[in-house]
Amino acid sequence: MNREDPQLLGVTSQQGEVGAAGTARQEDARGQSSGRSIEEYLARALLDSLGNPPISLTLWNGKTVYVGQSKPAVDVRVKSRSCLVKLLLNPELYFGDAYSDGLVEVDGDLVKLVEVAYQGLARARSAGLWSRVIKWLNRRNTNALAESRENIHHHYDLGNEFYKLWLDRQLVYTCAYFASPDITLEQAQIAKMDHVCRKIRLRPEESVVEAGCGWGALALHMATQYGARVKAFNISHEQIAYAKARARALGIEHRVEFIEDDYRNASGRFDAFMSVGMLEHVGPEYYPELRRVIDRCLDPNGRGLLHSIGRNRPNPLNAWVEKRIFPGAYPPSLREMLEVLEDWDYSVLDVENLRLHYALTLKHWLQRFENSSGKVKEMYDERFLRAWRLYLAGSIAAFSNGDMQLFQVLFARGANNDIPWTRGHLYS
Amino acid sequence: MNREDPQLLGVTSQQGEVGAAGTARQEDARGQSSGRSIEEYLARALLDSLGNPPISLTLWNGKTVYVGQSKPAVDVRVKSRSCLVKLLLNPELYFGDAYSDGLVEVDGDLVKLVEVAYQGLARARSAGLWSRVIKWLNRRNTNALAESRENIHHHYDLGNEFYKLWLDRQLVYTCAYFASPDITLEQAQIAKMDHVCRKIRLRPEESVVEAGCGWGALALHMATQYGARVKAFNISHEQIAYAKARARALGIEHRVEFIEDDYRNASGRFDAFMSVGMLEHVGPEYYPELRRVIDRCLDPNGRGLLHSIGRNRPNPLNAWVEKRIFPGAYPPSLREMLEVLEDWDYSVLDVENLRLHYALTLKHWLQRFENSSGKVKEMYDERFLRAWRLYLAGSIAAFSNGDMQLFQVLFARGANNDIPWTRGHLYS
Predict the structure, then answer these.
(1) Directed axis angle between helix A129-137 and helix A110-125, to 10°?
(2) CB proximity A421 to B under 8 Å
(3) pTM, two decimal places
(4) Range of A72's domain?
(5) Å between A422 CA and nearest CA of chain B
(6) Does A234 share its domain with A132?
(7) Contact A353/B352, CB-based, under 8 Å?
């Protein structure tokens, strides 16, 4: 078999034979198929294991390897042999670390890189073995009560000052709702808060329990804009302190109670249960517990809303993101989400998938983050800056590619007939 | 224990002790607890097994039995002891037959009767045993290819003339969409067709495969109102013949092809997959087959819509409806519906629950049916008339009570980014 035969482009890679990505090219040694080095074979194997995406790899010795006839727009510079070997063993996990540590550099669009790598991985995974290996490598942590405090602190107690650099003014760290794609992030976060309040048809003097309230923007919005009385739970000390200060400043501590505690310790009965961006931090093994909390807290005529990152199919979170950015996180499939509700007599009224809205939200965040990259580096270090840049860019790619979803699930008790007749009120 | 103690109202019934419904009263023999006959005990046991709903039972001997202090608004006259015994053994199955045969008569609102019986049953079921017994009694039929032809003929080949008596002018035999509750049934069926066409964002010259097309109204609507080219499948001979005649009359046979065949035999690639009111006739064991058909038929940028009767939790259809009206039918829970999509890379974009719309649709149908009851009796017989009256009334109750749901699930392939930004276009 002539390994340079153009007709074989992208074909031999499907045989899954390591080192047999015969279509890979090498700029310095084109046509000299007999002179291939071990590192060149490793680079080709890496591209092959990634489904041969349109990416070139430039090695520490200056050689550039890629698949196809012309050099792709995105080049990844791999600075050492050990880095190449680690990437080959577990690209999803190690790429993030290597990028953070500056052991790989990306020339070209970082979002584009992750996008084509995701697409390639999906192709490679459909072969089967890779999928199982990735799953094994991605074995999840658990989220027992004590543990979830640690997991949350890891991410959310990085310091309010850090998030102030690149979130909107109200520090809403969940998918925004762009009623139109050209509104500002500030407007889109307010639109999202209005969207969920309208979905649960929040009325004056109604009581709401909010599970996982972040820096409190939604709780405050429900109180100030809808006249609701809110009990909002969060186990992140810094976030609750910030939220309490905002409530005091607004003079509405009597309407919004911020509680530094696990939502599972909520008590009382409420007209609405609201949870925006928490379910992805609740492992599926704890869904029955969440269900019991909802059932205990929700009035017979109550409505509930679960807003969560999700997947089309059950799949673990990207290994690196799970390890370095969001320990213990698991975005459920819609069917898995429904496990929270189905064993009890809840009626799902409305599900909306806002995937593209999250891609756009993340683009805003990344842009603001880059605008503050100097400050981020000052506050932390280069490694932190690069890790977060990759996380935000990778998340844009994941939502753009359809690898991640954003589900809003509206529900009520089965016998509740005080439900909206249509969804027209959301759009008037 | 004083069996007549008013403080025990509705309490002893929860002990599940047959004949111990000590709170039941008897008009003729109030206070004479020693003089109770066997039929009175049976009547009390029946009420108890139904969760003691606000219904009175008047027996063949003129005695009236009920639970509570005052006679309920709905009375069920049971005309023989054997009928009472059969009701006690399997009320869900036998009530329909007994009512159809005139062995029981209802004084009062039939819908109300079924509603309170459902509510009572739900209470009684939560005890556990009853639920298991009902499930056992409701063991489902299967829907192998040959069998589903028989099942469908049973219901849909009753004769177009019958359905013309009480459906809308276009013979749409699925849940309508009442953009406002006071529009006519005709308007609401057209609104439903527009609603699903807008959900899949149907564009001129796009191709649609429709699985289960009834009398063809939606297929014709998609062609005439949206400029689509449609292949519509149905295994009911009478319905297809009717649909073909309509297409000919409209001069659009070149745009709408009605095919008397199982949807599983569909071939070709389409911009949209549409199925309104068929999934409830597909047993869950055939969902993988449906999924393969969708996957085979849908373009990479295609959209799909599944509209089906459903449940909040997996539960068999009412035994009598399943036996006498819709053999082989099974309304899935939303999670079960998602089984059609989740194992492949489909993205659920939108789920809407139109339960209250189906209750209202059925109210229109029942009213028209009653207006034509003389004709129905003429075409068939009294038994048929009563069976269908009960089926329609019972269905109103089931959707009003939250026992049945109506889900519309919109989906696209995972990587398709040509999806609506918001759902605002459905409401403008």
Answers:
(1) 120
(2) yes
(3) 0.86
(4) 6-137
(5) 7
(6) no
(7) no
